From TrEMBL:
Pfam families: Fer4_21, Fer4_5. It comes from Candidatus Jettenia caeni. One of its GO terms (cellular component) is plasma membrane. Residues 302-331, 332-359 form the 4Fe-4S ferredoxin-type domain. It is found in: Cell membrane. Keywords: Cell membrane, Iron, Iron-sulfur, Membrane, Metal-binding, Transmembrane, Transmembrane helix. InterPro entries: 4Fe4S_Fe-S-bd (IPR017896), 4Fe4S_Fe_S_CS (IPR017900), NosR_regulator (IPR052378). PANTHER family: ELECTRON TRANSPORT PROTEIN (PTHR30224), ELECTRON TRANSPORT PROTEIN YCCM-RELATED (PTHR30224:SF4). The chain crosses the membrane at residues 24-44, 88-107, 151-168, 180-198, 210-233, 254-275, 281-300, 367-387. This is 4Fe-4S ferredoxin iron-sulfur binding protein. GO terms for molecular function: iron-sulfur cluster binding; metal ion binding.
Length: 422
């Protein structure tokens, strides 16, 4: 036992370093968040210029705004694989989305942990919430952390089966008008209550977590079925050329946020508040594209590896994991929930006990090298698209000015996925 203690002391990491994986990742997150804010300001200024009829201060439309059109990006992906061409309507959206898929293939969900602005805001929220919860009694903080997961699990018990029936085409949107759905209200109430009422020895918080995560996979499956599987290429061609809503989808997205309804504002505020006490609430339970990246990440050559001989079973890695992965019990962290944040590695007190490595533990990947490869890959691919002419939309400023002036007309509306054509 004395020998083991001595060896452990020799292997202890130097925690006095000013720069570690966590700080490098935070600086990276902050840099990308600033870029996103600048893009948002540029696009807002561009739309204001168009609304004034082409008068006043002019700011070119930033292509990066298309990263906020995830459904359009999925449509662009279907169009690319169906025709071999990149749509010229929202090309940057497809390029960014395709780049994310490739980053997951090579670098796991590094985009989620290092770049995504939503992930950044969510993480900074729960870290602030952690500081507050630690000042409360342990039982109170435990309840505050777990109530949102249990409630989400209850909602998941209701909506995941409904989404599944929609995917299987056993239900349609018209089906929700049937009286039977009103008669099922007691069943909905029961589903909400179950995660709270069943004793923890029969229905643990881990079970609730798994059920709650089903949301994002159900949403992902629905989008894949509707767009990737069912939508014909001819329909996509028609939508790109004849549907006014598609051509101004970016402007409609901006108007959603600047003219937000009370319901939308309430949902977003609820998400923000819950994210203070529940780690990565949106990312863990609702983000369908994070779910897709997680599935693709299984093919990545990178993974967190634990050396059982050096591990001292302190549990700090598991406690540090924002995705609630039990790192201390795994030899390799091969899970779709790992966002490659290096927090577990940073928390490990023993050199070599936990590291990011290539497949078969052949090579240790330093966090600095990982960040350089991930960011370099992302920047390189988006700039290749810029150089090769697949970055800027073919929609002219004159067309934007015209369409924004008539944005309130019915042809720019959609109802349950139905669009008017011109």
């Amino acid at each position: 036992m004395e020998i083991k203690k001595s060896n452990t002391k020799k292997a202890v990491k130097n925690k006095k370093k000013k720069l570690n994986s966590q700080r490098v990742r935070w600086y990276t997150q902050l840099a990308f968040l600033v870029v996103v804010c600048i893009i948002g300001w540029q696009f807002y200024t561009f739309v204001s210029y168009c609304e004034s009829g082409g008068k006043g201060f002019y700011m070119p439309r930033p292509p990066g705004v298309e990263s906020f059109l995830p459904i359009s990006a999925l449509m662009g992906t279907k169009y690319f694989f169906g025709t071999g061409r990149i749509s010229s309507i929202h090309p940057a959206g497809f390029v960014i989305f395709g780049t994310l898929l490739l980053t997951a293939l090579f670098f796991r969900r590094g985009f989620c942990g290092w770049i995504c602005p939503i992930g950044t805001i969510s993480e900074w929220e729960w870290r602030l919430g952690d500081w507050f919860l630690k000042k409360l009694p342990q039982r109170v903080s435990h309840i505050m952390r777990n109530v949102p997961t249990r409630f989400t699990a209850g909602l998941s018990l209701i909506f995941v089966p409904i989404i599944a029936l929609l995917i299987l085409e056993m239900l349609t949107m018209e089906s929700f008008k049937l009286p039977i759905f009103r008669h099922l209200i007691p069943a909905y109430a029961l589903a909400i209550v179950l995660p709270f009422a069943v004793p923890r020895r029969f229905w643990s918080d881990k079970v609730n977590d798994i059920i709650a995560r089903a949301w994002k996979y159900a949403i992902l499956a629905f989008f894949i079925q509707v767009i990737i599987i069912k939508m014909p290429i001819a329909q996509l061609e028609m939508m790109y050329t004849r549907v006014p809503f598609i051509r101004v989808a970016d402007v409609k997205m901006l108007k959603f946020f600047t003219n937000m309804s009370g319901m939308a504002l309430s949902v977003i505020l609820a998400m923000l508040v819950i994210s203070l006490v529940n780690k990565n609430f949106w990312c863990r339970f609702f983000c369908p594209y994070g779910a897709l990246l997680g599935v693709i990440a299984y093919a990545s050559p990178f993974r967190i590896a634990r050396d059982a001989k050096k591990c001292i079973d302190c549990g700090k890695c598991t406690k540090a994991c924002p995705s609630h992965i039990v790192v201390e019990k795994k030899r390799h962290v091969l899970t779709h929930e790992c966002v490659a944040c290096y927090d577990c590695v940073n928390a490990c007190p023993v050199n070599g006990a936990l590291d990011m490595k290539l497949v078969r533990d052949r090579k240790k990947i330093h966090y600095g090298l990982y960040a350089l490869m991930l960011i370099g890959f992302y920047v390189a691919l988006t700039n290749v698209a810029r150089i090769t002419g697949h970055w800027y939309t073919k929609i002219s400023d004159a067309e934007y000015i015209l369409r924004i002036s008539e944005l309130d007309q019915p042809k720019y509306l959609h109802k349950a996925g139905q669009f008017e054509t011109e």
